[in-house]
Amino acid sequence: AVVSTQSTGEKATSAAKKLVGDSYIEQGCGSLRTADNATRHLIEQRRLPQHGWSDLNIRRVLNEIALMDSNNFDGNVGAGEREGRVYSEIVRQRNFGLAHGMGRSGDIAANQPKAAGSALMCRVTEGLVLDVLRSTGCTNTKSCVVLPVATGMALLTSLLYLKQCNPKANVVIWPRIDQGTCVKAPQTAGCVLEVVEPIVDGDSLVTNLDRIEELMQLHGDAVLCVMTTTSCFAPRTPDKLVQVAGLCKKYDKAHLVNNAYGIQCSRCMGLLNTASLQGRVDLYVQSLDKNFLVPVGGSIVAGFTKDIISKVSKTYPGRGSSAPVLDLFITLISLGKEGYNALLKQRKEVYVRLKDQLQQLAGRYKERVLDTPNNQISLAFTLTPSNYKESCALTELGSKLFTRNVTGARVVTCSGSKTVGHVTLDKWGCHSNDYDTPYITFAAAVGMTTDDVDKLVEKFGQVLGKLSVV
For a 10 Å CB count at each end of the chain, is N or C smaller? Predict the structure, then answer.
């Protein structure tokens, strides 16, 4: 049980033995004790179980957790405006009766008096996440909080916290990555965005460290932070976190890292860990759905002191939905350490398979896979305009893949621009004004299977066959 009521349990067992027989009931009680021990270890250690739990045991724990929330007390009379009342039985079942959400008005991580079960689930889930962050390579992580918002809003929350610490600073130095959230979050926080164009190094786009240092010197005390990125679309590669962290330490500037889907990549997590040990990293943010195969709606903010995450939690205004935490809690104990490690191992194998098959396909159509070895998630396949029918716009390749039920591929034409807020970026999608090679990207992300790779390459080959003149 989540909370032991040993004397009551013993009386019930004794009564059951009188009805059914000692040996049968004792065998059944053995199974219950095993489940109770697993629950006890989970709460005490707050670490990912080695083996995933059965759905039956997960439902049992969730039902017991729900019984600890006041809206599920027998005879409860709610006299306030927020009492966990739910009209639809479908909605109640979807949330396992957990209706109070998470946090309190002044702290998203605070425990609610009326929702002991929900609070317990949140605290255990934070421990499970911390275990995952450390075991995937960022061993120096000291604390984390699961927020009921997606990555962009978590970046915004982090920026607002940094502004509270340094209210006179408003410049965010940002190595360019063409993803709208990254452009919008600093501006929503009331900051001025200083865009740092990357350096073209072979096929790769890499961090311009000299320009970052120039901007630190230029803006001085007005610099709020440097906001770097790990996981990204090729040919962009993860920022040089260790070197940037060194600059942030040298100039005493905050460092916020967008690690959106980096948990699944040991290279990204290793970079974060080394950067935190050798330089300065204040916070790093990641998505729940991209790393843990849950619905969109949650994120993790992690840091390298316990104090900083406590302060970030107090920056979040009001309560929040506990649905993202519930989804993550269920998924993590369903997977267990072995299950999640198996997913990470499969992802690495899928990356190698996808790269190999794309290279074979590129050879047949006089294209190539861009050489971006430091990006271990995303791959870019060149699209040479002269290789395709004159009537074919390169973006047509993407639309034809979409009609064949291939989603997530991005065609980048190295043309046009996009304005987000007050910032206009030329050659939107390229991450750079100096990149001239059109391409299409594919991601070997967690959850993708070898069968997915085979079907993707087959359908991509069909599209190329229809549009190519080679």
Answer: C
3-class SS of residue 423: strand
pTM over 0.90: yes
Which residues are registered as beta bridge partners of 255? 226
Task: Mark 268-281 as b/e (b = at least 16 C-beta within 10 Å).
Answer: bbbbbbbbbeebbb
Q: Is residue 374 a contact partner of residue 204, using CB atoms and an 8 Å limit?
A: yes
Tokens describing residue 227: 């906001």
Which residue has 């070197």 as its token pair?
Answer: 243
> DSSP string spanning 45-64?
H-S--SSPPPHHHHHHHHHH
For residue 351, with 0-12 CB atoms within 10 Å meaning exposed, 13-18 middle and 19 or more buried, which class applies?
buried
Are 401 and 460 in contact, with CB atoms under 8 Å apart? yes
pLDDT for 90-114, tens place per residue?
A: 999 999 999 999 999 889 999 999 9
CA distances from 384 to 68, 265, 347, 380, 417 (A): 62, 30, 29, 13, 20
Instruction: Determine the 3-state secondary structure of 38 from DSSP.
Output: helix
Give Cα 432 distance to the centre of its chain.
25
- Other CB atoms closer than 10 Å to residue 319's CB: what's the count? 20
